[in-house]
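Minutes, project check-in
Item: structure for the 221-residue chain
Input as provided by the requester:
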Amino acid sequence: MSASPAKRTILLVDDHPLVREWLTNLINQQHDLVVCGECGSAPAARQLVAQKKPDIAIVDITLTEGSGIELIKDMRIENPKTAIIVLSMHDESLYAERALRAGARGYVMKRETTKKIITAIRHVLEGKLYVSEKLAAAITERFAGGKTGAGSPVEQLSDRELEVFQMLGQGMETRQIAESLHISMKTVQVYCARIKEKLNLSTATELLREAVRWQERDKAV
């Protein structure tokens, strides 16, 4: 009797324990897939990836400590054999291309069906990219038309600037942002100044108001 083929291993990185539990149950029901670890922060994810060397890491954009986008960049350098899929509540129109540029091989929104999550995993295991049909069409149309510019002021922000902007919208203070991203308060202030310039805002109050407004829009998508 021949031995059963080894199962492909999946690491879950999400700041919500219930989401990790749901994904674990979903993935472990597959005959050829198994969850090998889970965590909710970027530092813990780096440690687990180095230990477990999973075939795929499913990563959220927002984590309890650190940034999903920065984690993806680091993982592609430190553990290039681990493919990455982003599973996030955030609108793919703003985050998916950033995630793909950082090194992710797929992007799935949490509102999608469980079938699409498994489909994404299998696509990536086969060496393919996975994004929604809507996003694939948008990317194709933009490049076919030679359009590479940002579609809105927020899209002009760098990955780190967008993180800071998002955290401001969540009500975090400068000190909290600095601690979460492991940077100095002065660096956070520099990012805030750049964001104001790019969004054509004059004061810190305008910046905070716009960040809160944008965060509410992002949640409503």
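Outcome recorded: The chain has a mean pLDDT of 88.
No further action items on this chain.
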